[in-house]
UniProtKB/TrEMBL annotation:
One of its GO terms (molecular function) is DNA-binding transcription factor activity. Pfam families: DeoRC, HTH_DeoR. PROSITE patterns: HTH_DEOR_2 (PS51000). Residues 3-58 form the HTH deoR-type domain. The keyword Repressor applies. This is Transcriptional regulator, DeoR family. It comes from the Bacteria. Keywords: Repressor, Transcription, Transcription regulation. PANTHER family: GLYCEROL-3-PHOSPHATE REGULON REPRESSOR, HTH-TYPE TRANSCRIPTIONAL REGULATOR SRLR-RELATED.
Amino acid sequence: MSLSIRHLEILDIARRDGKVTVDHLAEHLGVTLQTIRRDLSELADAGKLERVHGGAVLPSGTVNIAYEERRRLNAEGKTAMAKACARLIPEDCAIFLNIGTSTEAVATELLHHRNLLVVTNNMNVANILSRNPDCEVIVTGGSLRQSDGGLTGEITTAAIRQFKFDIGVIGCSAIDQDGDILDFDLHEVGVSQTILRHSRRRMLIADQTKFKRKAPARIGSLSEINDFLTDAPVLTDLASRCATWQTAIHLCPPEGDGT
């Protein structure tokens, strides 16, 4: 595929922001929505982007994208999911928040909750919640992953096993069509599995980009989740499976999104 100047500019924006939207590109580049949709389809066919509702994201592979890039990717969707997740979390409870940009967004939405005990293996979550004087924060310890502030390993899982949480909130790298929850890091998978085993109520927060990605390591299944929060409609087959599993799907579109 021969890339036009417009295609190259679209890719530059995608690399900078983690995603592109049809409306923004049409306005920014001064072309029609139909032209942008055609451009995104051509870039997707060439493997440069992956189409999602309303736009496109950087393609996935067997290696996770950079953390700062993940922070920017679908930030509006993550904020919407985080607000909904915080509404499901009562005050006066013990929760676990694991590694990920979505769980960091949840931490921000918990800044005004009272009498929380939050255990985390996410240094960024701990730093965010240190601003809440009514929140006791416990950091698990473990091997520090400098790229994202995550703590993993046997020290981490041993610390988690000392607790029984009212609510465990996890993220993931990808969700397969059969409902399997996936990640890139085997050490992180072990931590997430331990969180699920030691939580009375289990929440997964994962935006629409996770349905477009693949990852090699299996955390578990949506059948093990009580509340699944996402920002775009789930495919009918998977939604039916969730209903059978009694996994509640909470659709959390960003403000102003007509989804």
